[in-house]
Amino acid sequence: MKLNGTHKFNNVSSSEVYSAILNPSILQASIPGCESVEVLDANRIQINITTPLPGLKGPYGIVVGVQQTAPNQLVLSVQRQGRGGSVNATSTINIQEEAGGALLTYDANAELDGPVAIVNNPIGQGITKNSLNTFFKNLDNAISK
Fold first, then answer.
1. What pLDDT band is residue 115 in, cutting at 50, 70 and 90?
2. Are 66 and 44 in contact (CB under 8 A)?
3. What is the model's pTM?
């Protein structure tokens, strides 16, 4: 499953967006279904989440690997096997200054196996895109505060 796109943050700098994405309380408030976010070390974040996907509600503990190239790039990776199937995913996030704000560009690829592979159908993709839109709306609100 491939996902890519952009999101424009108005009236904020790229460094503000970058910092917000790495802030556990902002992440928890921004990620739909997120119950907690804990920084394990400089390269790993633990996220506990539930999903709106039928049969895959969770909760799930997901360790996200984080490679940082401050202040413009993050590479996030997830390798998880267990209840719900397996996920091997990588997302590259680039954040650039633009007139009037910052532009975030993301490019993600996920290999899904087992029940979680339901995400790679039209209904699951719709839920995923809706969750991404909600994430960006929530992140916008959190940064604006």
1. confident
2. yes
3. 0.90
